[in-house]
Amino acid sequence: MKEDALWYEAAQVVGVANALNVVADAFGAGTPGLPALDPAAASGEARALFDDVRAFYHSAEVPLPFRLMAHDPAYAIDVWEAVRRAFGDNRLSRRLKEALAFAVSLTSRSPFGTVFHLGEMRRLGVGERGVMEVLGVTQMFSSYTKIADTLQLEPDMGDIAPADPSPAPGGHASPSRPALNARQVSGTSRAKISKGERRVASRASRISASPAPAPVSRRAAKKPV
Questions:
Q1: Largest CA distance in the chain
Q2: Region for 129 from its dihedrals, namely left if φ exceeds 0, alpha if ψ lies in -120 to 50, beta otherwise
Q3: pLDDT averaged over every residue in the chain
């Protein structure tokens, strides 16, 4: 799956961006019981974490999710390692990853993520036209997805590409599966019938199973004498 490495990298960005958004949007800076940690009051591991975060984002401010998670420095450091790995330049550039995180934040209606990743996009050189391009693509595909969900459509592209048994980048090969015989293929194909086709097939089977109506005589009724 070497060709799929880009997709795995993008998927990591989506997951990590959502993780940060959930924390920031749920608690905010001043939630009673779990206020964000003041960087000036941080010490030890939390202070070292904040310094690393500031350097990565080239900012004097520490993003809200890390100030919330820093109440448990070990946990915050683990999350930070995942963030730095996901958003670092690799096969995909950091600027593209910030655009993806911005799109994710838009579709999930995250106030924190939308503002934060928009700011990162602009800092990394994305101009106003670039931002509007990302916004337009996100809006259109969000619209298409809602339409498809409302109509309960199912993806019909699963059989276009053959299954690839090779492992994910850095993973281990999965055991090979035996080839399917004709009966198994028939059963598999039947399981892939869309919802609409299943409803039609079910209705047809009910109609065929119902008793046929009695034949209607076409002879004219005799008039009473």
A1: 113
A2: alpha
A3: 80
Token pair recorded at residue 71: 């109440």
CA distances to 78, 106, 107, 128, 167 from 140, rounded to whole Å, are 35, 12, 11, 18, 33
Tally of CB atoms within 10 A around 103: 22
- Phi, psi at 15, each rounded to 5°: -65, -45
Task: Supply the pTM of this predicted model.
Answer: 0.68
Structure-block tokens of residue 152: 């309960």
Q: Is residue 217 predicted with pLDDT exceeding 60?
A: no
Residue 38, both tokens: 């003041």
The amino acid occupying position 196 is G
Burial of 28 (0-12, 13-18, 19+ CB in 10 A): middle
Q: What is the pLDDT of residues 174-215, one digit of tens each?
A: 555 554 444 444 444 444 444 445 554 455 455 445 555 555
Instruction: Read off φ and ψ for residue 40, nearest 5 degrees.
Output: -65, -25
**CB of 92 closer than 8 Å to CB of 119:** no
Helices (H), the chain: 5-27, 45-57, 64-69, 73-87, 94-107, 111-123, 128-150, 182-191, 195-209
Amino acid identity, residue 168?
Answer: A
- Report which of 91, 113, 126 is spatially closest to residue 2, judged by C-alpha positions: 91
Q: How far apart are the first and last CA of the chain?
A: 89
